[in-house]
Structure formats: C-alpha cells, structure tokens
Amino acid sequence: MLLLNHSNYELECGTDEAGRGCLAGPVTAAAVILPDNFKNSILNDSKQISEKKRFLLKPIIEKQALSFNVAHVFQEEIDSINILNASILAMHKSIELLKPQPEFIIVDGNKFKPYNNIPFETIIKGDGKYLSIAAASILAKTYRDLYMKKIHEEFPMYNWKQNKGYPTKEHRAAIKKYGITKYHRKSFRLLPEQLKLDL
C-alpha cells in the first residue's frame, strides 16, 4: 500500500525521472502534488505496471493532481553536464513550473540538489512507497515514451517505439550498422568495447 504523504506539509510534491539508462533521447522528469483525498488502487512504480496501465493512469493523475509538470533534458545537455546532473536538472525544471509551488519535495533515489530552499528528502525506491512519486514516475515514463515514439518516425531502424532508446541488443546492432543519430548521447558507451565506433 503506497502512502500519501511523507512530511506534515500540505503541499508535498513527489518527483522522479525516466530514461536515465538510455542511449538515445532525453531524460524526462515529472513533479506531482496530489490532493489529500487521492486514492488509486493500481497506481505503483511505473516499472511495476504494464504500459497499458501507465497510459490509463496518465489522464487520471493529470486530472486529479493539484499540480503536475513534466520536463525533458535533451541529449546535448546530458553530454555536457552528465546524466546525474541532467536528471536532477529535469526534476528542478518540472518542480519550477508547479503552481502552487511545493512546501516539501520527496525525491525518488538518493541524489538531489537543493531547490529554492524548499526542504526535501531523497527516498530510495520511493516510487514504490509514496503515491506522489509513483504518479511522477508514471508521467515521466509516459511522456518520454510518447516522445521516443515520435522520433522513431524519423529513424525507424533503431526501433525506439519499442526499446525507447534503452540499450537492447537490437538497438546496439542498429548503432553498429547505421552509426549514431543526433538523438544519441555521445557521452554514453553506445557499444560494448569489442564493437568500437569511430565518433
């Protein structure tokens, strides 16, 4: 059973990101403030539920949240500031546009940087413990998946609509065959050592 609040603050937002381990595309974060009376029996960490359920939950969260926002940080910025900083930046960007602003922030994972002097707590596996982080994980994942499906049309040989930019065998084979695109993260090890790419 996921809990609603971690703190005693009324406006507590949960934040989480998707796409951290991908070879292509943005890292996407969401921030969500849920009302006190929010209940949903299928909401859970996005990795624990099917794609169909995630897309079922997306409009429910958007409709019932007091406030939510989603932000992408793209591959050029990931390459310039590294994936950890890019993940935190995406979370900050998603929190920045919340209206009202949160009084407390709960973050999935163990890394975060202070945002606007708002108190926060990092919670390992928080997306499986708190509803607002689970809701943020669903929005981050669904918005990112929709983006990857869109850029799939431009470069269908990488099959991003299926693998979403993650390092599957098929994705790595396509990189070996066709090289990289403007959407690939050049700072990532795109191929195992034995399959060196001339970048």
TrEMBL record:
The terms under GO molecular function for this entry are:
manganese ion binding; RNA binding; RNA-DNA hybrid ribonuclease activity
Where is the protein found, in the record's own terms? Answer: Cytoplasm
Location (main, coarse): cytoplasm
Q: Which residue numbers delimit the RNase H type-2 domain?
A: 10-199
Reactions catalysed, semicolon-separated, are:
Endonucleolytic cleavage to 5'-phosphomonoester
Which cofactors does it use? Mn(2+); Mg(2+)
* Keyword set, alphabetical order: Cytoplasm, Endonuclease, Hydrolase, Manganese, Metal-binding, Nuclease
Q: Which GO terms describe its biological process?
A: DNA replication, removal of RNA primer; mismatch repair
Look up keyword Nuclease and say if it applies: yes
InterPro entries of this UniProt entry? RNase_HII, RNase_HII/HIII, RNase_HII/HIII_dom, RNaseH-like_sf, RNaseH_sf
Q: Which residues cross the membrane?
A: none
The answer on whether this UniProt entry bears the keyword Manganese reads: yes
Tell me its EC number(s), please.
Answer: 3.1.26.4
Q: Where does a divalent metal cation bind?
A: 16-17, 108
Cofactor binding note: Manganese or magnesium. Binds 1 divalent metal ion per monomer in the absence of substrate. May bind a second metal ion after substrate binding.
Which GO cellular component terms, listed alphabetically, does the Swiss-Prot or TrEMBL entry include? cytoplasm; ribonuclease H2 complex
Q: Which family is this sequence assigned to?
A: Belongs to the RNase HII family.
User: What is the purpose of this protein?
Assistant: Endonuclease that specifically degrades the RNA of RNA-DNA hybrids.
* Annotated PANTHER family: RIBONUCLEASE H2 SUBUNIT A, RIBONUCLEASE HII
User: What protein name is recorded for this chain?
Assistant: Ribonuclease HII
**Species annotation:** Algibacter marinivivus
Q: What's the name of its gene?
A: rnhB
